[in-house]
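dumping this here before i forget
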Amino acid sequence: MTPLNEAQLEQLKEISTHLRQVRQQKSIRIEEIAAQTMIRAGVLQALEQERFEELPEPIFLQGFIRRYGDALGLDGNALSHMLITNVVCQDSKNTRNNLDKKRNTYIPLILTYILLLVSASAGLLYTLNPRLTAQSVTPEDNNQQSIVSNQTNRGRETGN
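structure:
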């Protein structure tokens, strides 16, 4: 489970104590609640016995508290929102602090477009420029081409 701060732990303790007391007042076994809510009995026991390290992430815990409260005839939404409001507020503060600590490495979009335009232009210039393609032919290729043309010319001369 995500570590909770002191306020969140206190809130979770209050909620779990309230749920346990209501369940015991109504003489409902934890196995009955587990069957009705489709939550494992071990998770419900960990919640009631305040073994919070065995519980899942707070967002799942919110759903468990809501279903558990509804099964007991309480307002499960209100119970779960008490916990999640506390968790969300704390998480958003932590996220904001982490973002403030990071260096701002912003690359303007125009710089990316300019780089892309220059590379595309260079590629087109290289592809479409006939002087560059003529210079790219190696001297060995020129020798082979001249040998082939000489043989062709000789064949024409002998054939005539």
